[in-house]
Amino acid sequence: MKNSRVRTLFISDVHLGCRYARVEPLLDLLNRHDPQFVYIVGDFIDGWRLRKRWHWEPIYNAILSRLFELSEAGSIIRYAPGNHDDFLREIRYNFGFVEIADEFIHHSPNGRRFLVTHGDKFDQVETKAKWLSVLGSFAYDSLCWFNQKVNDWRRFFKLRGLPLAAMVKKRVKAAVTFVSDFETNLVSHARDLDCQGVVCGHIHTPAMFQRDDVMYCNTGDWIENATALVEYEDGRLEIIDMQHEQTDIAIEDSSEFVLKQGEILRKMLIGAEPAATAGV
Q1: What angle do CA 127, 80, 38 make, to 5 degrees?
Q2: N or C: where does the chain have the smaller number of CB atoms within 10 Å of the terminal CB?
Q3: Per the database record, which ranges form the Calcineurin-like phosphoesterase domain (predicted)?
Q4: Distance between CA 100 and CA 122 in Å, rounded?
Q5: Are the C-beta atoms of residues 240 and 259 closer than 8 Å to each other?
Q6: Is residue 161 part of a domain?
Q7: What is the rounded CA–CA span in Å between residue 126 and residue 134?
Q8: Which domain CATH number covers 248?
Q9: 169-217 pLDDT per residue, tens
Q10: For 106-134, b where at least 16 C-beta lie within 10 A, e where not — what string?
Q11: Is residue 171 part of a domain?
């Protein structure tokens, strides 16, 4: 990873609550930088899975604590919810240190305007057949479980792991992109807002390319990938991959404030019943 000072971090599709989320490299990334802006570009919290089964690990609180720490130090934290955390759109709960909106306009230091939004509203499968999207999400959980078992077996015989879940998800997301014309519609919306770029997530495919007069940037995800989009002080953009970075993190006790926010979140999603112990 380059040593240039990072002005802005864009992260999406962390899916806190999904047992297959790669949260250690994310915490490592947050610990490495003190950016001026942090954009959480949707699906940070996986409300679909948490409603079905409460799964909240100590490192999730550590990630929230780090974001709170950045906010206290002056970083501006902005959160554009996605389809998995759309409950935040309805209640506008901001955790006390986060700005929440469906979309933001980010101003780069070289004068460009970037639309920042998750992107699910430009996915016709999500908007017209949400039941299919929800069904696919839980089928994907089963695929991840199977993939983990296969790779445990392969590691026993000293063989390399196979990204079966990522391969299937990539094909499905490619089909969704084709059907909904996802990228074209997002770029068109950014152009209508007089933006020269768009930053999104949703389809779990990191990408950065120019589409005519608008730059399309997708941050990727933290399940199949471990990628984020960074903006440097001079306005340069880069997709960074944390999959192969050396992760050395320490999880300290979370503040009372963060623990309280986690409890409020649990009550919002599943009610006031005692939370089940998180499994690994």
Answers
A1: 150
A2: C
A3: 7-206
A4: 19
A5: no
A6: no
A7: 9
A8: 3.60.21.10
A9: 555 555 555 545 888 999 999 999 999 999 999 988 899 999 999 999 9
A10: bebeeeeebbbbbbbbbbebbeeeeeebe
A11: no
Sorted by sequence, the CB contacts under 8 Å of residue 258 that are 6+ apart come out as: 61, 64, 65, 68
Phi then psi dihedrals of residue 269, to 5 deg: -90, -40
Kindly state whether residue 234 falls inside one of the protein's structural domains. yes
CA 23 from chain centre, in angstroms, equals 10
Q: Is the pLDDT of residue 45 over 80?
A: yes
Work out the number of other CB atoms within 10 angstroms of the CB of residue 20: 16
Letter for the amino acid at 126?
A: E
Residues 227-238 pLDDT 10s = 999 999 999 999
Closest CA to 61 of 269, 258, 247: 258
**Which pair of tokens denotes residue 199?**
């930053």
Say how many C-beta atoms besides its own lie within 10 A of residue 72's C-beta.
9
- Euclidean distance between CA atoms 117 and 41, whole angstroms: 6
Dihedral pair phi/psi, residue 259, rounded to 5°? -60, -35
CA distances from 141 to 85, 135, 148, 156, 177 (A): 17, 10, 11, 23, 21
In sequence order, what DSSP letters do the residues of 165-210 get, joined into one string?
HHHHHHHHHHHHHHHHTHHHHHHHHHHHTT-SEEEE-SS---EEEE
Our count of domains for the chain comes to 1
Q: How far apart are CA 86 and CA 171, in angstroms?
A: 25
